[in-house]
Amino acid sequence: MIQYILRRLLQIIPVFIGTTLLVYFMVFALPGDPIRALFGDRPPSEAVIAQLRQQYNLDQPFWVQYGLFLKNLFTFNLGVDFTGQPIAASLGRIFPVTVMLAVEALIIQTVFGVTFGLIAGLRKGRVFDATVLIASLVVIAIPTFVLGFVLQLLIGVQLGWAKPTVGATADWGNLILPATVLGLVSFAYVLRLTRASVIENMNADYVRTATAKGLSRPRVVVTHILRNSMIPVITYLGASLGGLMGGAIVTESIFNVPGVGQKLFQAVIRSEGPTVVAIVSVLVLVFVIANLLVDLLYAWLDPRIRYEN
Amino acid sequence: MTTDVRISEAGLADKPLLEIRDLAISFKTGSGEVQAVRNAHLTIMPGETVAIVGESGSGKSTTALAAIGLLPGNGRVSGGQILLDGEDISHASEKRMIELRGNTIGMVPQDPMSNLNPVWKIGYQVKETLRANGRPSGPADVAEVLSQAGLPDAERRAKQYPHEFSGGMRQRALIAIGLSCQPRLLIADEPTSALDVTVQRQILDHLETMTSELGTSVLLITHDLGLAAERADKVVVMYRGNVVEAGPSLELLQNPQHPYTQRLVASAPSLASRRIQVAKELGVESDELLAPGGPVVVEPTMTEDVLQIQNLRKVFKLRSGFGKSTDFTAVDDVSFNVKRGTTTAIVGESGSGKSTVAQMVLNLQKPTSGKIVFDGVDTSTLNNKEIFAFRRRVQPIFQDPYGSLDPMYNIFRTIEEPLRTHKVGDKASREKKVRELLDQVALPQSTMQRYPNELSGGQRQRVAIARALALDPEVIICDEAVSALDVLVQAQVLNLLADLQSRLGLTYLFITHDLAVVRQIADHVCVMEKGKLVETGSTDDVFDAPQRDYTKALLHAIPGARLMLPPEVA
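Above: the input entities. Below: the structure tokens describing the complete assembly.
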């Protein structure tokens, strides 16, 4: 088992180098000059531009730029962004917010998705099931920004149940609205996945045997239907965590959350190679580790899967 | 006065534990209510074993499930009573049924592979049963329950998961669970039909010992009349939802009244082989009993060896840890010859390597060493083109008629496919050939436009046979070709195979775990155990005078082998 985990952790290295290289190249290949773009309509003297170029290594060929970036990364020196702030410091500011947002969204989609999915599955074909299915379809069909603005207006502004925007100080309480919006789309998938899995499992022979043993209905549902049904759901949740972390650009913009999405978007607009790659690197790490955790959880849920080499 | 007292006392002692009266069960389907069981009636006295016998779809399992309140969601008891100790439980509340299940009515289900939850340890699955029924459920109690069901090393075994158990072990665990709370009635639904015969015998023996010690009544559901007669005091025969006959086992077997029971008695393979045995002892030639429509036509003069299997070995590499592998010898130094126009059966339990031999003969797997000589040519020397030609002459029929037909192909396309693959004839002549083949396997030509899911298991297996015959092969490899079929259908298919052999001079290599079937169809028998050929000889020799203990154990394990059956029953 430990061997397996070590091997999986070692696999991070090639994945990490591959993704950073790719992202670095894509930023490098973006059209336009990032330094000139900084100054807009009033270009500075050529000397200033040349000096800035040198400062950000932009006068070097691609491989040298990338090599310098890697070297700095391993000496824990991420450098400064175009506004002169240290990248490490801004990562330290934005990531906790995004992690909080993603975890809150994950909890919302898991708790509600699994609960509704379980009930719908157990009551297949009845009113609750039909209602939930249609509702989830509606949620999947509506784009996030529409959902975001509507909820912001309705719950945040008109009803005043939650803060409509987050601002500089993000905490669990005022992130509830963006977290709900972020979790809603995956919630619909979790619900449908749980429902399908429950329907499949509740007709399994071992469920009938469990009933024949004299177990009460709740016990049969929890130990024999729900646990077996969680296996595909866990896989999906793990994959969706990456999406929640990196793909929250729209939600973060609507609710003014100072998180990874916003920062990444700005950095891409400004062709700030180092910042983009730094953020993406952290996201890659989160993604790989989340998937490792999912695989371990998977083995715990399904003992037939064993990672002995 | 005194007489009255005596009668009531006698009445008390004779009070049935379970009485099913005029039971009717219906299922809600897309096209309205379907009656699955009509007017079923049976009585089980305390300590008695009663068997319900019937083919699939006869309503035998449905009746038993109704008694423990486990009908599927769309089924309901639409009439009659199920009296447990005089209490009608046919419409009992779910709360009452939960009280009864486990404690009063236990169940041993059919398929040991799917009836244990794969994600919980065996011990936990026993423990939760004990706990739910208010019994002590510590590790020692769990181990006790498991070891009583004949599971060795129970304490360690309890910590394992179902996938670490063999089929027989799992069935023992399920029996342990079913009997753990010492129920008064045990419903055993085909408890051993998924197991090898020898394991089946051990498990049934053990079940019998346990239930007689505990004084448990048993409701045994089975499709095997021989097994029912051997294990039960009374037999109830069900056919299409009706109880057609009931009575003491031997009486019913020796003097069946209903035409369906008569057919069942006539075609049960375990009984048929026993019958041949009895007849032989009385000097009757087995051929006369066997031949479906008159004497066998095949000339015994055909003595050419069409297949020669020489020192065949197959070693699989099993991965065991970092880059290492251990060798697993699935087939070990097997040699035998198959004469043209005869049937050779390879018999053995699961894991004996018999199917691997078949795969190698079909050239689907390469032998590690040894030779397979087909019609004088070593098959390992064939190039791709020659293998293609070889496949025309050697065709398989597989076990599962549900899995081996493509559900998206209609029957015409299924049977025509080998002809098209081998570019035989044009469209018109191929269609003519398909029609002929359907005639040969006694299927109506209208079957051509239908799809596999519209056919019954027996019809599908006929289609598989027609497909195998399409290229006019010389050898047909039947890998458990009749194992998945009900006895009556099985008998029909075996007759068809025998008939085709006599007309077309086919050679069969018959892979099976069922010795009773072997007795009916094979000329020669090869017995395999753990990859080795332990005994070989003519069917009569092997059955009359088995040399090896393993063969004896296999023969002894055929259900009904201990029954005394007069030959005139046939």
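Note for the figure: Residues 299 and 305 of chain A are 5 Å apart (CA to CA).
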